[in-house]
C-alpha cells in the first residue's frame, strides 16, 4: 500500500448513497453472474437474489465437460501470449523509429498507420477472409494472431511506444553512437532497459484485446476445438440448440474472474494506460 | 552525413515489419474491399463476376434493410454518445475530488471496460428477459412498474443496446475526465469562489470551458467507438427484432457470412468507410475551430 499524501475528506451521506445506487448496474451484473453460475437452470430467472439457491459447484465441472472448454481456454491464453509478444516486438521497433529516428516519409507513414485506429475491424474482414482462404489459413489460429499484431492493435501499440520514446533524453543515444553501437544494439541495450513501463502497459492492453476478440474467431474458426473463449461462451447450446444457461454462466465466470483479479491488482497501471491512450489519441 | 544516411536505412528496417503487416492486413484489404464492391463473389465456384455498380444500385433502390441499418447506426450513435458523455462527466466530477472511497467507485465503474463485450452481453441478456423473468423487470415489478420485453420490442431493443454499451464503456471516459479535471488549474476556482460564484455557475463558466479539449476528444473517441458495436448486437439482439437494431458493422457480417453476399457486404463496407471518413474530417475541422483552448 502506498501512503497517500492527499488528505481525504468525506462526502455527505446522500452523495455516497447516490454513488452506491450508480454503481449497481456496473457491479451487480458480475455478482449476478457468479450467483447464478451456481444455480440450476430453473433457478436463474425471476427476482434477483443475493446468494445462490443451488450451490451447484458441479456446474463448473460440467461446463468443462460440455465443450472442450479447457482446450478453448488454453487456445485463448496461448494466442493472447503470442499476439502480445509479437506486438511488443514489432510495435516496439516501429515505435522507436517513429519516435527517435529521422527518415523520409516518417509523418505520412505514421499517420497512415494511425488511420487504422479509426476503422472498425468489420471494414476489412471480407478481404481478409479471402486472403486467409487463399493461403488455406481458415480454421487455423494464424489469422487470430496475425491480424491483431498488424491491424488496429498493432497501430495502437506503435503509437503508445512512440509517445513514450519521444520523451527519452537524446544524450543516451549520443553516447551510444559515440561508442559505435549500431541502431539495433542501441535499441536493445540502452532503450529497452529503461522502457519497461511502456512495454508492460502495452502488454496488458494487447493481452486484453486479444483475450476479448470476437469477430475474428467467429469468422475464421469452425471447429469447436479451435474456439477461443468468447466464441465458446456464445456457444453453450445443447444438441437441439437449446441454451445451457447455468453452464454458460459458469464458463463466463471462469473467463471473467481472472481478468478482474488482474485488473484489481494492476488497477492504477491499467487505467492510467487506457486514459493515456485516450488522452493522446 | 554518414550518420543520418545510416540512420535512414536502419529506421526503415525498424518500421518494415509493422508497415508490411499494415499493408497486408489493413491497407491492402481496404483497397480490395472497394474492388470487391463491384463484384459478385461466389465462394463455391470461386468465380468473381464484375457487375459494375449493381451492388450500389441494389443498396439504395431495393434494400430497405440497408436504409434502416444506416438510420439505426445514426440513432445508436446519437443515443449513446450524449448519454455516455453527460453521465461520465457527472460521475467524473464526483470521483475526481479527494473524498474517502472515491477510488473504490472508480474501480467499480471501470470494471466493465476490461470485461469482454461477449461476457457482458451474455449476462445482460439474462437480466433483460421479458415478463418477470429478467432481474430488471423483477425489480421494476416490485415497485409496481410492468417492464417491457426489452430485447424483443423494436424501440426498447435499441434502448437496451444503447444503455448496455453506455454502462460497458462509460468507465473509459470517466477515467479520461478525471485525469483532465485533476489537471485543472486551482487558481480559477479560488477566483470564482472569491467572486461568489455558486457551484453551477463555476461548472458552466470555468470547468466546462477548461475541459473543452478533453470534452471534444472524448466525444470523438466515443463517436468512433459507437460504430464498433458488433459483439453486443450479435449477442443481445442479433440485429432484431425486425432489423430494428441492425447497424452497419453487423450488417457487413450478416451479408457476408450468413448470406455469403461477399460483394454486397463489401459495398456496405465502402459506405461505412465513407461515414468514418466524413466523421474524421468533421473531427479535424472542429478541432481547429476550438484550438484556442489547447496549448
Structure description:
- The complex is a heterodimer of chains A (281) and B (295).
- With 281 residues, chain A is an all-alpha fold.
- Chain A has a single domain (69-280), classed as MetI-like (MetI-like fold), CATH 1.10.3720.
- Chain A is built from 14 helices and no strands.
- In chain A, helix 3 (69-100) crosses helix 7 (152-165), helix 4 (106-115) packs across helix 7 (152-165) and helix 8 (171-178) crosses helix 9.
- Chain A is globular.
- Chain B is mainly alpha-helical.
- Chain B has a single domain, classed as MetI-like (MetI-like fold), CATH 1.10.3720.10.
- In chain B, 75% of the residues lie in helices and 2% in strands.
- Chain B contains twelve helices and two strands; from the N terminus they run H-E-E-H-H-H-H-H-H-H-H-H-H-H.
- In chain B, strands 1-2 form a two-stranded antiparallel ribbon.
- In chain B, strand 1 and strand 2 form a beta hairpin.
- The two termini of chain B are 35 Å apart.
- The mean pLDDT of chain B is 89.
- The chains are: A mainly alpha (281), B mainly alpha (295).
- Chains A and B meet through helix 1, helix 3, helix 4, helix 5 and helix 6 of A and helix 1, helix 4, helix 5, helix 6 and helix 7 of B.
Name the largest protein-protein interface in this structure: A-B, 99 and 97 residues
Low-confidence runs of chain A:
none
Rg of Cα set of chain B: 24 Å
Q: CATH class of chain A, anyone?
A: Mainly Alpha
Report the major sheet of chain B: 2 strands, antiparallel
Order of helices and strands of chain A: HHHHHHHHHHHHHH
Kindly state the number of beta strands of chain A: 0
Average pLDDT taken over every residue of chain B: 89
The structure class of chain B reads: mainly alpha
Number of strands of chain B: 2
**Which consecutive residue ranges of chain B, at least 5 long each, have pLDDT under 50?**
none
| Whole-number tally of structural domains of chain A | 1
CATH class of chain B: Mainly Alpha
Structural class of chain A: mainly alpha
Chain oligomer state: heterodimer
Question: How far apart are the termini of chain B?
Answer: 35 Å
Q: Which superfamily, in CATH terms, is the homologous superfamily of chain B?
A: MetI-like
CATH architect. name of chain A: Orthogonal Bundle
Amino acid at each position: 500500500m502506498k501512503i497517500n499524501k492527499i488528505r481525504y475528506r468525506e462526502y455527505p451521506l446522500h452523495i455516497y448513497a447516490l454513488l452506491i445506487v450508480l454503481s449497481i448496474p456496473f457491479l451487480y451484473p458480475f455478482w449476478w453472474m457468479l450467483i447464478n453460475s451456481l444455480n440450476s437452470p430453473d433457478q436463474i430467472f425471476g427476482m434477483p437474489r443475493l446468494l445462490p439457491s443451488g450451490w451447484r459447484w458441479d456446474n463448473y465441472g460440467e461446463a468443462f465437460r460440455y465443450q472442450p472448454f479447457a482446450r478453448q481456454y488454453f487456445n485463448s491464453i496461448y494466442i493472447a501470449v503470442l499476439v502480445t509478444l509479437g506486438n511488443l516486438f514489432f510495435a516496439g521497433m516501429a515505435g522507436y523509429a517513429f519516435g527517435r529516428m529521422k527518415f523520409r516519409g516518417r509523418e505520412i507513414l505514421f499517420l497512415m498507420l494511425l488511420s487504422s485506429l479509426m476503422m472498425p475491424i468489420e471494414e476489412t474482414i471480407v478481404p481478409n477472409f479471402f486472403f486467409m482462404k487463399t493461403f488455406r489459413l481458415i480454421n487455423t489460429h494464424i489469422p487470430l494472431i496475425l491480424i491483431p499484431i498488424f491491424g488496429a492493435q498493432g497501430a495502437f501499440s506503435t503509437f503508445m511506444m512512440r509517445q513514450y520514446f519521444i520523451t527519452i533524453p537524446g544524450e543516451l543515444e549520443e553516447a551510444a553512437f559515440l561508442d559505435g553501437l549500431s541502431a539495433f544494439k542501441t535499441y536493445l541495450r540502452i532503450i529497452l532497459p529503461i522502457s519497461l513501463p511502456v512495454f508492460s502497459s502495452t502488454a496488458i492492453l494487447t493481452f486484453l484485446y486479444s483475450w476479448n476478440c470476437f469477430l475474428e474467431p467467429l469468422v475464421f474458426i469452425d471447429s469447436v476445438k479451435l474456439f477461443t473463449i468468447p466464441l465458446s461462451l456464445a456457444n453453450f447450446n445443447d444438441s437441439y440448440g437449446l441454451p445451457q444457461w447455468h453452464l454458460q454462466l459458469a464458463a463466463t465466470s471462469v473467463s471473467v474472474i481472472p481478468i478482474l483479479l488482474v485488473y484489481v491488482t494492476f488497477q492504477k497501471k491499467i487505467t492510467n494506460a487506457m486514459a493515456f491512450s485516450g488522452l493522446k489519441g | 552525413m554518414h550518420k543520418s544516411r545510416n540512420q535512414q536505412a536502419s529506421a526503415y528496417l525498424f518500421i518494415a515489419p509493422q508497415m508490411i503487416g499494415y499493408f497486408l492486413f489493413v491497407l491492402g484489404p481496404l483497397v480490395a474491399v472497394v474492388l470487391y464492391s463491384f463484384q459478385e463473389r461466389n465462394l463455391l465456384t470461386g468465380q468473381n463476376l464484375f457487375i459494375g455498380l449493381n451492388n450500389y444500385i441494389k443498396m439504395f433502390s431495393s434494400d430497405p434493410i440497408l436504409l434502416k441499418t444506416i438510420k439505426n447506426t445514426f440513432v445508436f450513435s446519437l443515443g449513446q454518445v450524449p448519454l455516455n458523455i453527460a453521465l461520465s462527466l457527472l460521475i467524473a466530477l464526483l470521483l475526481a475530488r479527494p473524498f474517502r472511497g472515491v477510488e473504490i467507485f472508480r474501480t467499480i465503474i471501470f470494471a466493465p471496460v476490461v470485461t469482454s463485450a461477449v461476457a457482458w452481453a451474455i449476462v445482460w441478456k439474462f437480466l433483460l428477459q421479458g415478463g418477470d423473468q429478467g432481474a430488471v423487470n423483477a425489480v421494476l415489478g416490485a415497485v409496481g412498474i410492468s417492464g417491457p420485453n426489452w430485447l424483443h420490442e423494436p424501440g426498447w431493443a435499441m434502448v437496451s443496446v444503447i444503455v448496455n454499451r453506455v454502462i460497458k464503456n462509460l468507465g473509459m471516459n470517466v477515467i479520461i475526465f478525471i485525469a483532465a479535471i485533476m489537471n485543472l488549474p486551482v487558481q480559477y476556482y479560488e477566483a470564482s469562489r472569491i467572486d461568489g460564484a455558486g457551484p453551477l455557475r463555476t461548472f458552466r463558466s470555468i470547468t466546462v470551458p477548461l475541459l473543452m479539449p478533453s470534452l471534444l476528444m472524448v466525444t470523438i473517441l466515443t463517436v468512433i467507438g459507437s460504430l464498433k458495436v458488433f459483439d453486443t448486437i450479435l449477442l443481445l439482439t442479433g440485429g432484431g427484432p425486425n432489423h430494428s437494431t441492425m447497424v452497419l458493422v453487423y450488417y457487413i457480417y450478416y451479408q457476408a457470412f450468413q448470406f455469403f453476399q461477399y460483394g454486397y457486404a463489401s459495398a456496405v463496407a465502402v459506405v461505412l468507410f465513407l461515414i468514418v471518413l466524413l466523421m474524421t474530417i468533421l473531427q479535424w475541422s472542429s478541432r481547429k475551430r476550438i484550438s484556442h483552448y489547447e496549448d
